[in-house]
Amino acid sequence: MKLRDNFLWGGATAANQYEGAYLEDGKGLTINDVEMGAEHGKAREIHQTIQADRYYPSHEAVDFYHRYQEDIALFAEMGFKSLRISLSWARIFPNGDDLEPNEKGLDFYDRVFDELLKYGIEPVVTLHHFELPLQLVNKYGAWRNRKLVDLAVRYAQTVMERYKDKVKYWITFNEINALFISKQPWHMAGILYQEGENKVNTMLQAAHHQLVASALTVIEGKKINPDFQFGCMLLYPCTYAATCHPKDQIKAREKLLATYYFGDIHIHGRYTNTCLSYIESLNGHIEFELGDEAILAQGTVDYLSFSYYFSAIEGVSEEIEMAEGNLSSGGRNPFLETTEWGWQIDPIGLRNSLNQLYDRYQIPLFIVENGIGALDKVQKNGTIEDDYRIQYLAQHIKALKDAVEVDQVDLLGYTVWGPIDIVSAGTGEMRKRYGFIYVDKDDEGNGTLNRSKKKSFEWFKKVIATNGESVDLEEVQV
């Protein structure tokens, strides 16, 4: 078994980290637009209003809004088969609950999709990628409020009807399980916990509202175009037991419960024993409305997409050293190296993850985020010799090929995060670079925004051209 002929090689981005133009053409404020840039390793400040003389990375980001033709041409030159982008809800409905959509916002995405399709690049569209309109926080309390289900579905219906002949692949919520895993509920649901609030119940209820909104989006989308393909999207925290002690095996399983919770509901269409036991372990409670169970059962997804960056260990020992990763943390594995940001590098963990997810769910999988953030150094001649990025990606591509060719996993595609340097979601930094394309901008927002190719650009071009057969660094001549 080989990678499918129409394997969706490409890249992945998010509007708040990429587009910029944060108030242009009628766009409203989002939860990202009030997040300031932070010093390396520190959390970003949130004030829910814009503070004078402070830097907000999302306001300009790297200006895809005005440079989309240039960027898409570069992606096409690499041979991309797909590009994952997110839509900004506030670009379509500036306040989130407006009576009519913003035509200029809709037109922008029309132009982006037309440009992609001109080159034969399949759009993969995320509806909610940490993009909540700020007014929905101020007016309704964000995803605490059931009202957001109706508003989110109306937004989804609007864009699905508009782009029904341009977009086939949809993702409802980005890394939806991060609401349980991360310590940043602002990103996932626009929530800052209030004093005296039952945080557990608020978290569970917000998640339920998002899950119902996801299911209703699938139901309504299939009415608009039966050929639409819908995916859920999980942050996958690949986890190993620290030792062969049986209690460590239990700890490793427990680490994954918050992830399988969302996979089970999206794919099985119900709160499974995994979900119910997790709720009980938190002593939590969820309010259901009449019909919710039927909605979840009907609105199941067609594929499971996920992000994979690192693995970690779990065990009962208090001596396990902790390591940070993508919106999560876990125990440090002595057998693994780490990135400059302390994320553990584990290509074989991607193969393990693919097998764990496929064994559990038996629907097509899609790796929609994988990559390495690094400090790229521009040489005097302007080149960037990012062999470390090539090595990282080559090892992960070999692992996914083993999952497909040896283990018979059904895999739709692989989109690298991010194919061009964009703003870091966690800190707002620019120096944490993932792209094949360098963007001239620093952490303070200075720079020309000019684009230039890194060494990895030509390497990934050859990977795509050979459908993954040529991945080794030494095969690349640049």
Q: How would you characterize the overall build of this protein?
A:
38% of the residues lie in helices and 14% in strands. By secondary structure, the chain is an alpha/beta fold. An 8-stranded parallel beta barrel has the order 1-2-3-4-5-7-11-12, surrounded by 4 helices. Helix 6 packs parallel to helix 9 and helix 9 crosses helix 12 (292-298). The mean pLDDT is 94.
Report the span from N to C terminus. 31 Å
Structural class: alpha/beta
Classify the oligomer: single chain
Instruction: Write down how many β-strands occur, each being a DSSP E stretch of 2 or more residues.
Output: 14
Contiguous uncertain segments of 5+ residues? none
**Could you describe the largest sheet, including whether it forms a barrel?**
8 strands, parallel, barrel
Output the helix-strand order: EHHEHHEHHEHHHEEHHHEEEEHEHEEEH
Calculate Rg over CA atoms.
21 Å
What general form does the structure show?
globular
Count of DSSP-assigned helices? 15
Overall mean pLDDT score?
94
Strand content: 5-15%
Specify the helix fraction band: 25-40%
Order of neighbouring strands in the sheet with most strands: 1-2-3-4-5-7-11-12
Topology record:
Elements (H helix, E strand, L loop, with lengths): L7 E5 L2 H4 L45 H15 L3 E5 L2 H4 L10 H16 L3 E7 L5 H7 L6 H16 L6 E5 L4 H4 L3 H5 L9 H26 L4 E7 L2 E4 L4 H23 L4 H9 L10 H7 L4 E5 L3 E4 L7 E3 L4 E3 L15 H15 L3 E5 L17 H19 L5 E7 L19 E3 L11 E3 L1 H11 L13
